[in-house]
Amino acid sequence: MAAPSTMPHMASSFTAPGSGVRPNRTNGPFRFLLKINLLSGGVSPLSRHAIEKSTSAQGANAAPSGEEMDSKANNYHLIIAELEAGLKFICQSPQDNGVLKFMICRPLEGEREVLTEAQLHLVQGLVGDNWKIRGSTKTSDGSAHPDKQLNIMNFRVMALLARTKERWPLAGDQLYLDLDLSGENLPPGTRLSLGSAIIEVTAEPHNGCEKFMGRFGRAAVKFVNSPLGRQLHLRGINAKVIEPGVIRIGDPVKKA
After folding, report:
1. Is 179 part of a structural domain of the chain?
2. Which of 112, 127, 165, 252 would disulfide-bridge 119, Cβ 3.0–4.6 Å?
3. Domain extent for 235
4. Which bin fits 189, alpha (ψ -120 to 50), beta or left (φ > 0)?
5. 225 vs 36: CA distance, rounded Å
């Protein structure tokens, strides 16, 4: 399975099918604001020729599982066998010297801006994102959780789940890296240099939720929340900014 290419420089004519995309010019890089209703977009078949099946096929007369029924109801959603088959591709991510492959911010609830460049700030996190104003139910005063400034996901997991790049923003994580995010490789406290910034992995868990299930299917939640999925941090990790700086698509990601 060939790794998807990095996000191209976006032209003003870019429109995701059914996405309600409208251009949003800022003082910085040219960005696009996506309303999160991408589920009506077209689907590109998932290439599996380079991945061996990790589970045996069920009998032809076997009753369909809940995951299979979900997949038939929404042809974006994969069944668990298809997801497990993608583990070989996911585990090819490097343990160091990774790459920033994709990036978004969330200006408001249900909105995504696809970015080619961003600023990481000590207080604001990713500038333009709603992390600080959204707050958190996990803090005593409802303020933003300091250890959840940045949500990070392995881009290979996202490529597998989303099936088409138009749907990558659905997960809502800001940074998508080609890097092994497992707890063994990036335990809490690990620092990463990214562009001119430095970030630190935090201990706050990042698990699949109801929104994640609605966007990627019940099998996807089972996949990322499984013991192996948690060990590999398939749903992603949380991090905070240690040193501010500018980051761009294609920047190397290295252990600091």
Report:
1. yes
2. 127
3. 22-50+65-255
4. left
5. 24
Residue 243, classified by CB atoms within 10 Å of its CB into exposed (0-12), middle (13-18) or buried (19+), is: middle
Domain count, the chain: 1
pLDDT in tens, the chain (256 residues): 444 333 333 322 222 333 333 333 333 333 445 444 433 333 333 323 322 333 333 344 444 445 544 444 456 788 999 999 999 999 999 999 999 999 999 998 888 899 999 999 999 999 999 998 887 877 878 878 899 999 999 999 999 998 888 888 888 899 999 999 999 999 999 999 999 999 999 999 887 677 888 888 899 999 999 999 999 999 999 999 999 999 999 999 999 9
Strand order in the sheet with 117-121: 125-126, 117-121, 245-248
Q: Is residue 104 part of a domain?
A: yes
| Residue 176 φ then ψ, to 5° | -125, 115
CATH of the domain at 191: 2.40.33.20
Q: Which residues contact 145 (CB under 8 A, 6 or more apart)?
A: 136, 138, 139, 204
Residue 205: what residue type? P
